[in-house]
Specification:
By secondary structure, the protein is an alpha+beta fold. The protein folds into 2 domains: 246 residues, 4-Layer Sandwich (Glutamine Phosphoribosylpyrophosphate, subunit 1, domain 1), CATH 3.60.20; 251 residues, no CATH class. The protein contains 20 helices and 23 strands. It is globular. The structure holds glycine (GLY).
């Protein structure tokens, strides 16, 4: 049999396509994916591919971020969203760094004690609470954030509608439910089941979605089509806004048309710090994450971590002690900087941080209750004391393009599948970000973080976050793009990736994969990943007085069996300083994560 060139090509294409369809999806792996030009690393292979396609067609990192973020809202409804919010760090090849804050805001009807029951305690999960249902949502910021980023920093080679199209198509045509997504739906069944649209769409009216089946979302596709046609403000002022406000009004929710119309994403000045000669550029408040990472790096710098080794008990002890000290400050001094004065400079002052470490004992844990009450400069002692919380169910993606622009984006619905509410007629799953406010100072929130009055609920305020999209520069050249989900464990995850690369000289895939620990001041204990520490190290840490538990965050995830345990994953890109190759490290903690480069 003979075959002409085009016949051969067709057959080859056929074989390759069949191969792609049959081959198991390329999973995250210890060896980073290398690419010469551009790289997208996200929690979900389809979304990484969407972003990489935009890069290949000449889009920049911001264009790709918009397409990836919207695609994740369809294929990863656990945390990807248009009904939530987040933070985007942008590095421009001309050297500028930008921080976009598209955190949700409290609706105008929100009030200080709205989540307290008659007994003065935070209402349990359910109607009226900050964790579930119609009154748990802040005004969503994702669409406004993506639109702002695109307008100011996109390449302008792509119209907004073109970047929405892959997400719309995935919603209309459906995507294949992965085993991981099916397991998430099962685990969070109780979040979604009470709300008719959520039950119908995500739980197939109780039949549950199985791995391998096609899941299409026609209402979400129609919403995305409206956003394509009328532009991003449609979400805030058009039919979508009307549907959100109507749903809220009919079901005792708090968000109104005016709240949506008034929502704005804002640019903030990124934070800058240094660590062993590297520059670290990260997210400022209302996220606490960037400040915490810079504080912890500064506290670590006087110690020879390389000598302690990557996994000694001495190193984990030191990490836990700097985490403890930084997180105490998080619980007291942080809130929305548009409403309270967060003493960022005081917190980052090296002298202040050295004082915090004065009682560090290499042989003994310092009980959290024994930390001295040392306020940073700039803190108004008369201000009401804060106390704080976070969820595990956020997601992060990292992007670098051919020109050297980069995006580190972390966004969330807060809890997995957010408030559980899908707005009728829209397919939009809403956030439960109001739980990131302090419902009651000193009471741990749903996720176990203690917070304070500086983060109290008030109309128009943004709740405190831990999201930490971060860039690291070596000799002023972009070196790492990283970030993670995991509520309070986010800054600690980012910290450990940075330390693994800089102090332990780990290749990026190893740095991302290496076991991590978590300490958040209260409760006073070290969480460690299942099987992440050796028995000897655990014993040595216990010998120093630490309490250890095989987990890395505190809160309801504690109830999840270890086999169901998915701790914070960091989606990271390193740019090899020698070769300029983009090295994409998708965290194997998330089974559908993938680095896609070209
Ligand atoms: N909702 C998790 C965070 O903002 O950190």
């Amino acid at each position: 049999m003979t075959m002409d060139a085009s016949g051969f090509t067709k057959k080859l294409v056929g074989i390759v396509s069949i191969g792609l369809l049959c081959a198991p999806p390329a999973r995250a792996q210890r060896t980073a994916v290398e690419a010469e030009h551009g790289m997208v690393v996200s929690v979900y292979d389809v979304a990484s591919q969407v972003g990489a396609d935009v890069l290949k067609k000449g889009g920049n990192a911001v264009d790709a971020a918009v397409a990836t973020g919207l695609a994740l809202a369809v294929v990863y409804p656990y945390a990807g969203n248009i009904g939530g919010g987040g933070f985007m760090m942008i590095h421009l090849a001309d050297g500028r760094d930008v921080a976009i804050d598209y955190r949700e805001t409290a609706p105008a009807a929100a009030s200080h004690d709205m989540y307290l029951g008659k007994n003065g305690k935070p209402l349990p999960r359910g109607p009226g609470s900050s964790t579930q249902g119609w009154s748990a949502s802040g005004v969503p910021g994702s669409v406004a954030g993506f639109a702002l980023a695109l307008e100011k920093y996109g390449s302008h080679k792509f119209a907004w509608a073109e970047l929405v199209e892959p997400a719309r198509r995935l919603a209309a045509d459906g995507h294949v439910v992965t085993a991981f997504n099916a397991s998430r739906l099962l685990v969070r069944n109780e979040t979604l089941a009470p709300y008719a649209d959520s039950k119908r769409i995500f739980l197939k009216d109780g039949a549950l979605r199985k791995a391998g089946e096609i899941f299409s979302q026609p209402e979400l596709a129609a919403t995305l089509a409206r956003l394509q046609k009328d532009g991003p403000r449609e979400f805030y002022e058009g039919e979508t806004a009307r549907l959100i406000a109507d749903g809220m009004a009919k079901n005792g929710g708090t968000i109104t048309l005016a709240d949506l119309k008034n929502y704005r994403a804002v640019e903030r000045t990124p934070l800058h710090g240094t660590y062993r000669g590297y520059d670290v550029v990260t997210m400022p408040p209302p996220s606490s994450g960037g400040v915490l990472v810079l504080e912890m790096l500064a506290m670590l710098e006087p110690f020879d971590l390389a000598k302690l080794g990557p996994n000694s008990s001495a190193k984990y002890h030191l990490l836990a002690e700097v985490m403890r000290r930084a997180f105490r400050g998080r619980a007291i001094y942080f809130g929305d900087p548009d409403f309270v004065k967060v003493p960022v400079a005081g917190l980052l002052d090296r002298g202040y941080l050295a004082t915090l470490m004065k009682n560090f004992d290499p042989a003994k844990a310092t009980p959290s209750t024994a930390l001295p009450d040392l306020a940073p400069a700039g803190w108004d002692a008369a201000a009401p004391k804060a106390a704080a919380a976070q969820s595990q169910d956020t997601t992060h993606f990292s992007i670098v393009d051919a020109a050297g622009n980069a995006v580190a984006n972390t966004y969330t619905l807060n809890g997995g599948f957010g408030s559980g509410v899908t707005i009728p007629g829209t397919g939009i799953l809403m956030n439960n970000e109001m739980d990131d406010f302090t419902a009651k100072p000193g009471s741990p929130n749903f996720f176990g973080l203690v917070q304070g009055e500086a983060n109290a609920v008030a109309p128009g305020r943004r709740p405190l976050s831990s999201m930490t999209p971060t860039f690291v520069f070596k000799d002023r050249r972009l070196f790492l793009v990283t970030g993670a989900p995991g509520g309070g464990s986010i800054p600690n995850g980012v910290l450990q990736v940075i330390v693994n690369v800089i102090d332990h000289d780990m290749p990026v895939g190893f740095a991302v994969e290496a076991p991590r620990i978590h300490h958040q001041w209260l409760p006073d204990g070290i969480g460690y990943e299942p099987y992440g520490l050796s028995v000897d190290v655990v014993e040595a840490l216990r010998g120093r007085g630490h309490i250890l538990e095989m987990r890395n965050t505190y809160g309801p995830e504690k109830k999840v069996p270890l086999s169901e345990y998915y701790p914070n994953d960091t989606m990271t890109i390193m740019i090899d300083p020698k070769t300029n190759l983009r090295l994409g490290a998708a965290d194997p903690r998330k089974p559908d994560a993938k680095a896609v480069g070209y």
